[in-house]
Amino acid sequence: MSMDRRDILRLGLGLPFLLSGGAAEAIAGTLGERMPVPTRKPAPPRALPVIMIDPGHGGHDPGAIGPSGVFEKDITLDLAKRIAARIEAGGRCKAVLTRTRDVFVPLQERAAKAQTAKADFFVSIHADSAPNPDARGLSAYTLSEKASDGLAAAIADRENAADLLHGFDIGVSDPQVAAILFDLSRRHSLNTALARKAHIVKTAGAKLRLLDNPRRSANFAVLKVPDVPAVLIETGFLSNTNDELLLTSVKSRSRIATVLAEAFTGAVTVG
Ligand SMILES: [Zn+2]
């Protein structure tokens, strides 16, 4: 059979009309009938608790500087990334970071991130300095208007000053707002945070060196997250040569991260 030009044109014009009419729907309908219709939606996967890890300092705020010249902001970022990776690998919790690069994040923004992410736990990671060069070891802080001792107060003051020094108002300078935030935090989250602080100190303390009186409290702006239990960890003191050595060694940081990831996961899933 031979087709002339007119036949080809007719066929070419007719085909789209045919398919755009009932034919296309008929084909789809036939296919649709044969498709298995799901009778039940699969159950959504159970949401894992979210731990937000906050590497202290960053950008133009180096934090403490060790005798060897190492910056706290670099130690905290590396530790936080390792902790987050270990938590994720454990499969019992999800981990998110407040910063993944060397950038400055205001304290209030860090706390706000935990709230926006609806985190189940917020942990800020630090390695500050102390006036006494012999002070060393890990300690954990919860929020309190009254510091547990002079060192706790001095560390909190220095941490809070980071925002003011770098042109950010920490947003809690209004005493009424601060009181409301503190009250909300205390009522909804502080008891949980206290229990988790105790769990972390107990678990990590079995494997890492602790500071004297490791369960501490102070008025840290970054811990003012009304809806999220929040703890700040001082992993050690860069002002102590032994701690500085431990914190600058990749092998030792890796070990600290493994211990803390286990402690944080346990604090959220057991406590
Ligand atoms: Zn710090």
Account of the 3D structure:
The protein has 271 residues and is an alpha/beta fold. It has a single domain (50-269), classed as Zn-dependent exopeptidases (Aminopeptidase, 3-Layer(aba) Sandwich). The protein contains 7 helices and 6 strands, in the order H-E-H-E-H-E-E-H-H-E-E-H-H. It has helices at residues 5-34, 72-90, 107-116, 150-165, 175-205, 241-248, 250-269; strands at residues 50-55, 94-97, 121-126, 138-143, 210-218, 230-234. It has a 6-stranded mixed β-sheet with strand order 2-1-3-6-4-5, sandwiched between helices. Strand 1 (50-55), helix 2 (72-90) and strand 2 form a beta-alpha-beta unit. Helix 5 crosses helix 7 (250-269). The chain is globular, with a radius of gyration of 28 Å. It starts with a helix and ends with a helix. It binds zinc ion. Zinc ion is lined by residues 56-57, 63, 72, 126, 128, 159.
